Amino acid sequence: MRSNSQLGKLGEDLAVQMLEAHGYLIHDRNWRCRIGEIDVIAQEGDVWVVIEVKLRTSYQFGSPEEAVGVAKQNRLLKLGQAYASEKDLLDREWRIDVVAILLTTSNKVERIQIFRDAVRGYD
Question: What is the pTM for the complete model shown?
Fold first, then answer.
């Protein structure tokens, strides 16, 4: 059994591997500001991407992607704006993706999926 922090790190490592395999260029991991934290910041072509990684070991509390509720979506929108402002990227196109990961009881990947443009409300 792994701790939550170990599972979080594993989830982010798995997500980054998958994102890179799909052509994303990773710029930052675990970027923090007073509002919160962004798991991964990447670029896909000309589009900057805020990426939320959600890992679950069962469906007991729903699927990983269902864990990104309205409050989290609103926070991700604010975090994206804060990152773009700090990095002077306000004039760039950006979106929010969610990487959902489900592990088996033996910590093997059962499912990993990228939900592109998963959070709306900006532009």
Answer: 0.92
Output the CA angle 88-21-77, nearest 5 degrees: 35
Note down pLDDT in tens along the chain; length 123 residues: 567 788 888 899 999 999 999 999 999 999 999 999 999 999 999 999 999 999 998 888 888 999 999 999 999 999 999 999 999 999 999 999 999 999 988 888 999 999 999 987 644
d(CA 90, CA 22): 25
Class of domain 4-115: alpha beta
114's CB contacts (< 8 A; 6+ apart) are 18, 19, 22, 97, 98, 99
